[in-house]
Amino acid sequence: MKDEILATVSHELRTPLSAMLLWSQLLENGSIQTDEKAQTYRSIRESAQAQQQLIEDLLDISRMLAGEMRINLHAADLKPIIRAATTIVRPLAVARNIRIDEELDLDVSVQADAGRIQQVVLNLLNNAVKFSHDGGHVHVRLRRANGAAEIEVTDGGQGISAELLPYVFERFRQAQGGTPRHGGLGLGLAIARELVELHGGDIRAKSPGAGLGATFTVQLPTEQKSKTSSDPASMQPSMPPAQAQWRFVPTDILLGVRALVVEDDPTTREAIQYLLEKCQAEVIGFDSAADALAEFAASLGTGPRFDVLLSDIALPQMNGHDLIRKIREIEQHANALRPIPAVALTAYAREQDRVAALAAGFNVHLTKPVVATLMVRTVANCVGRPMDEGPSGRGRNPSA
Amino acid sequence: MSFNQNILDPTTLLAACGGDRVLLQKMIDSFRATFPNHLSALREAAQQKDEFSFRRIAHQLRGLTSNYSTSVAAQAAALEEMEADQHIDPIMDRCETMIQLTRDLGDLLSVLTLEDLQRASRIQ
Questions:
Q1: Is the minimum CB–CB distance between B74 and chain A shorter than 8 Å?
Q2: Strand order in the sheet with A258-262
C-alpha cells in the first residue's frame, strides 16, 4: 500500500509540474502566439495552485499524524464562511454548467477557526463539483439541528457505493486499489474530519449508492446565546456532538506548570506525561513513591517547586496513601505556604476508595480508565486554571 | 477491520487517548511490550499460591487493561478479589482465561488504527 501511495503522491505532484515546465518552455521558445499567452499564463498559475494545494494537504496530514494540528477558536458566523467557499468553487462549476444552490437563511454563530472551517466547506464543495455530471447541481444548506449548526452539501453525481462509504474519510483512500481515480491524493476528507473533530463536531457521509449522488453533513457545536459574554462558560461549545466529550486538543493551559507523576505502570505514566506535555506542562515521572518523595522533598529546598501531584495508589513498597501522608508531613515541617494539589489516579473506584484517598491527603480522586480530557481538565482546575464548567475528578477544593 | 467488541472497548480507548493518533500508538506499543511479563508473573504467583503477589499483579492488570477493555479489566478485578482460601483449581482456570483474553486483546491492538477505532465507536 505504501508503494501505491508513494506512486500516487509522485504522480499528483509531477502532473502540475510537468504542465508548468511544458508551458514555460513553449513560452520561452516562442511557440505560443500572442493571443494565446493569457491562457498559457492562466494554465501555469492554475497548475502552481494545484501543486500548492497538494503540498498544503500533505503538510496537514503530517501535522495530523504528529498530533500537532492546531486551531484558533473565535466567535464566527458560518454564513459568510460558506459564501466565501462557494464563491471560490463557482467558476469550476460554471465551466461545467453545474448549478450551486445556497440555502443559508440562518445566522449561526459558532466558536471556530474560520479559515479551517472554510477549508472544510471548500473541500466538500470541490468534491461535490468534481463528482457531479456536467449540467448537474450542488446544494449547500446551513441550518440548526439537534442543538448544533449543520452544514450540508449534497450533489446528484457519482455517489458512493455501500462498500466504500465507511472508508471515505480515511487518508489516501483514493490512492488505494479498487477505487476509481479522480485526481488528488484522497486527503481532503481525512483532513476535513480531523478539523471538524478538533472543533468538537462531527462529519458524516451518506449516499443511496453508486451513481445516485451523495450528502456530506458537518455538525458544529453552537455558542450558548443565553449566557453573557463575560461568563467564562459562554466560551464553552454546547454538547454533544459526542466527540466534544473525549476529544483531546493540545493547548498551552499548563504552560509553566511542573507536575510530579507517580505511576508504576509505564503505559499509563507515559500517557499522562504525553497529555500534560502537550498542554505545555513540565512533567517529572517516577515509578516508585520513594523516588518521587525524595524529589518532592528536594524541591522544597533549592529546586523549583512542583505545582501538582498525580499519583497511583497501588504502588509497590510505598503506596499512594503513604506517599501523600508523608508529603503532607514534609510540607508541615517546611511550613509550606500552599500544600501541593494532589490527584489520586487509581483503579480503586469504590466510594470507600475515594473517601480513603481524600482522608489520606489527596484533593481529587480520579478513577481508571483514564479519560484524557478529564485528566487534563482536573489538573488545570487544580493549578487554578479552570478550562470550563465540564466535569472533573471528584474531591475537594485543592486550595481549601 | 471488524472488532470483537467483547474484548476491545473502542469508546473507552478513544477517551483514554483523546483521539490522538500518536498517543494511541504509544499506548498500544507500551501495552504490547508490558503485558507478557504481567501474565507470566500472574501465572507464577498463582502456581506458587503467593496471594499477595497474585492480588498485586491482578490489580496492575486491571489498571493496564481498563484503558482498552471493560470486560478484560472486569476479569482482572474478579481475580484481584477472589477469596484467599479458594481452591487453587478455579483460580488457575480464571487465571488462564485472563491470560488468553489479554493475549487476544494484544493481538487485536497490534493491527488497530485510529480510523478503525473511530469507526467502531460510531457503530457502537
A1: no
A2: A282-286, A258-262, A308-311, A342-346, A364-367, A394-395
pLDDT band of residue B122 (cuts 50, 70, 90) is: low
Distance from C-alpha of A340 to C-alpha of A292, rounded to nearest angstrom: 13
* Alpha helix positions (H), chain A: 2-28, 37-66, 78-95, 114-130, 188-198, 243-246, 266-278, 289-301, 320-333, 351-360, 372-382
Q: Is residue A392 predicted with pLDDT exceeding 70?
A: no
What is the value of ipTM here, to two decimals?
A: 0.86
Which cell numbers in the block locate residue A326? 508523608
B67 touches chain A (CB under 8 A): yes
Residue given cell 496537514 in the structure block:
A60
What is the nearest CA distance from A397 to chain B, expressed in angstroms?
25
Report the residue from A67, A314, A368 with minimal CB separation from B21: A67
Q: Are strands A148-155 and A137-145 parallel, antiparallel or unpaired?
A: antiparallel
- d(CA B112, nearest CA chain A) in Å: 14
User: What would the mean pLDDT of B2-25 be, rounded to a whole number?
Assistant: 83
CA angle A8, A14, A16 (to 5 degrees): 115
The per-residue pLDDT for range A370-382, each reduced to its tens digit, is 889 889 988 998 8
| Least Cα separation, residue A190 to chain B (angstroms) | 10
* Of residues B11, B19, B62, nearest to A247 (C-beta): B19
**Would you call B34 and A275 a contact, using CB atoms and an 8 Å cutoff?**
no
**Distance (Å) of CA A314 to CA A121, A292, A294, A317, B76:** 49, 14, 19, 9, 14
Band of residue A128 on the pLDDT scale cut at 50, 70, 90: very high
Instruction: Tell me whether residues B21 and A65 touch, CB distance under 8 A.
Output: yes
CB contact at 8 A, A77 and A204: no
> Any chain A CB within 8 A of the CB of B64?
yes
Distance CA A249, CA A267 (A): 20
Residue type, B57: I
How does pLDDT run across A347-357, given as a tens digit for each residue?
A: 887 888 888 99
The reported pLDDT for the residue numbered A235 is 28
Beta-carbon separation of A274 and B26 below 8 A: yes
